[in-house]
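thread: overnight batch results

M.L. [08:02]
morning all. the overnight job finished for the chain we discussed friday. pasting input first so we're all looking at the same thing
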Amino acid sequence: MKKKIKQRLVLIAALSIVITLVLVSVLFYQILKKQVVEELKSYSKALSFLSYEEIEKVQNQSIRVTMIREDGVVTFDNYASIDKMDNHKNRPEVIEAIKKGEGSSIRNSKTIGKSTFYFAVMLPDRTILRTAKDSDTLGKIFMSIVPFVVLLAMVLFLLSTFLTNLLTKEIIKPIERIAKDQNHMAQNDSYPELEPFFQTIRKQHEDILRSARVRQDFTTNVSHELKTPLSSISGYSELIENGMASQEDTLRFAKEINKNAQRLLALINDIIKLSQLDSDELEFELEEVDLYQLAKESIEHLKMSSQKQEVTIQLIGEHISIFANKTMIEEVLYNLIDNGIRYNNRGGSVQVTIKQLNPGTLLMVEDTGIGISKEHLGRIFERFYRVDKGRSKSGGGTGLGLAIVKHIVAKHQAKMDIYSEKGKGTCITIVFS
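M.L. [08:03]
and the structure it wrote out:
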């Protein structure tokens, strides 16, 4: 980065020097041209007050004076013999003087590297008085100052290089500082213009640390969650294997082994689902899905569980289709309704509402359960986070259901909100666009 900044700044400085010198040369030439024309104009005006005979007697070796009749015939020239001179009627300055009273032009000679400035004025007797003066061309003027230009360019280039090194160090210094110590960089250590960049770096650094903590917590939780059912399976099977269980105990142990195996399988399946949903490369098919019908089917699947918990489920709404992945929406409905049953009170209820909004489609799952306190509300979508750990485990939950719901909702670019009050119940709303 430092090398690129130096190279670009030096290149900009070099181009600036060259462009500046060229512009200065052009500007100098324009000033010179204006001065020469003004000089010729003033000289011509002064001569116009003299008689023809007086003009012929004027001796000025630096300015050429030519008298021309209106038909273009030269009658006097103080530089050359008029016998050898061509008709001047077609000269630009003469044509302009005849039309407007005065005219000027510049003609360049590549052979001698000179520019000749002409100024012509029409006298009262219709004779044209023309004055002329030679000057170096722009190219010759520029070439004459090449040594000075080169020397000046070298001095400016060296100065620019030196200043570029200083400026680069100053620009890079806060970046190098934050690279060495991102955790303790003060706000006033950088330029105000660079602060948005540093804020982005800090945010990314914090996100990386947070992601690392989440991964570490996830690994710890997965290890713990897998260890618990595996320990039970291992313990019960060891007792059966060593003949330490009676026939009655064997049947009970077999049920416990099956229960923990099912829990383990559910946990592994949920981990796989989350892993797939975490991937940015996950591709899934979208189709027209009847949200009301899927909710009805999910309620039917959970009918036995609700009867066991003595919880009634009510479906309100109408058949509304959304463009979504059917399997994923089934997962969302099942998890939300299952949670409404699992964390409810005996004799409680779960209400599922499907409603058309303008715009969007509303899915709302509301229960009359134990509710969630404010300190837990912001974390319930975290993996393995449980408000009531004992109740969740006894009910067979993996602690990943709401995390899966959150990811599926995000994949469908829907909006989810949760409202809950301790002891009064919970309401989760999802709006599909």
